[in-house]
Every structure is written in structure tokens, then in C-alpha cells.
Protein: VOC domain-containing protein
Organism: Pinibacter soli
Amino acid sequence: MEQEKNISSKIHSTVPVIGTDNIKKSIIYYTKVLGFLSDFEYGNPVVYAGVKSGDAEIYFSYDPEIVNLIKDKKISPEIFIWLSDADNLFKEHVKNGAEIIEPISDRPWGARQYVVKDINGYHLKFAQPL
């Protein structure tokens, strides 16, 4: 138990990795539609990349098999994203053409939240603490 406490006290952040069959297209979507900034690209052709917004980061990995599995099995991996102004970001996402699958509303778990389905099939849950 003591070892677990020491290890976990050193963790300071996590970065979700999204499998995609087109990294360039994913970067364009995340920057133009969702408002992230491009952070890095690796490989030629690009096989790994990242975007960021504030302290939040999301990475992309070239993995067409994951994308096909998500589509074929109709699964929806989720990424929960905390933010400070859900209403304004929601309006931006709607204006930019994001696929809103759950509209903004106050949720019983203490969050003002909405859900976007990204171009890879992932559900992005944008939420502001109430």
C-alpha cells in the first residue's frame, strides 16, 4: 500500500491517445472545429501527433484497425474534458459544425456538460463544474 501511495503522488497528468486512420484530418478537425492548437507531428508520413488547449493535450496514433473496430462494433470510447466556460465553447462548437450528440445541460453529477462525436467515433464530454 505504501508503494502505491508513493507512485501515485508522482503522477501529474494524463494524455488520452486517439486511434485514427488519418492523422492530418484529425488535426484539422480538432484545430478548426474544436479550437485546439496543433502541438507536434511525428513521422513522414505522420504516424503520431498531438493537439493542446491550455494544459489539456490529446494525442493521435495512426491505427486504422481501431477506427474500423469502433465503426464495426458501434462502440464509443469517451474522453472527459473539464473546462471553465461550457456555454461559450458549446456555441463555438455548434458554429464550427461539430456533431453534438448530447446538448448542453446541467447534469446530476455536478457538471454543465455536452457531448461531441469526433470524426474517429470518440465521444468528447466537455464539462464545467457547477
Q: What stands out?
A: Residues 23-33 form the longest helix (11 residues). The longest strand covers residues 99-107. The two ends are 34 Å apart (CA to CA). The chain has one domain: 2-129.
